[in-house]
Amino acid sequence: MKSNLFLQSVSPVKTADDLPLLKVRGLTKRYGQKQILDIDKLDLYAGQAVLLSGKNGAGKSTLMKILAGIERYNEGSLYYKEDRNKEDQARHQRFLQFSFLRKKLSLSNGIIYLHQHPFLFDISVRDNLAYGLKCQRMAKKQQAQIVQKALNWSGLEHLADRNAKTLSGGEMQRIALARAWVLDPKLLLLDEPTANMDTESREQTSFLIRRLINQGTGVVICSHETKPDNRLIDRVLHLDNGKLIESSRAELNQTRSPDNETSLPKTRAAIKPCKDLL
Fold first, then answer.
1. Fewest CB within 10 A of the end CB: N or C in the chain?
2. What superfamily in CATH does domain 46-69+110-277 come from?
3. Rounded average pLDDT per 10-residue block, the chain, 278 residues
């Protein structure tokens, strides 16, 4: 049975929060005597898609891993916006400073890094989606409910009982995105998420990324391509000689379509996010 993923419409894009999810200040990274990164300032926001571009070997993946807390850096500070209860949130926006040694405390709260070739277990799609929830010791009934919502959200219902390792690259990337979705990420770091995909798989994957953004997730997409997909990207950062250069709003608007949502994907109707999935 084929998925009805592309038989629905889509919600409007959310506006990014005033304060960033993640702040980077004075970040440097060296391998021996070679300077890889020298970043004065970087702010990442909720509900915003950032393209991190640059040549192969420019340090893009290194920066992504530092943001994810799985790579050490030499100098600098990173600050993550701490979730607060509703009573305090309007009056306080507090940032947590963290280091590599504190990453389990501060970075595990909502930051997820997905490699270009996502690691999937040699089990069913359904069980892959449930893995993170099992690690959280969630009750089985609640796990099953959330996994079913994730299958519906990603259009993978028809593949739920298939072995994830036997599927195509595009399908595996969608599984990885759905597995991230069940953990409610605040910031999603994607390393070449649509590389080597055919057109349909690329559009399906891009649409799921936009759904995450619409639901308030901040997204950074690492790519060696310099021309952004104007239906998906809000900001473009180019990494050159360890420095970040941001494209101006005028430069980005030159390539943007009037509605970056309704034109994606072109070959199918759009997706309507179910209320109980938001």
1. N
2. P-loop containing nucleotide triphosphate hydrolases (3.40.50.300)
3. 38 55 95 95 95 91 91 91 51 50 49 89 95 87 94 94 93 94 93 87 90 94 72 89 80 49 35 30
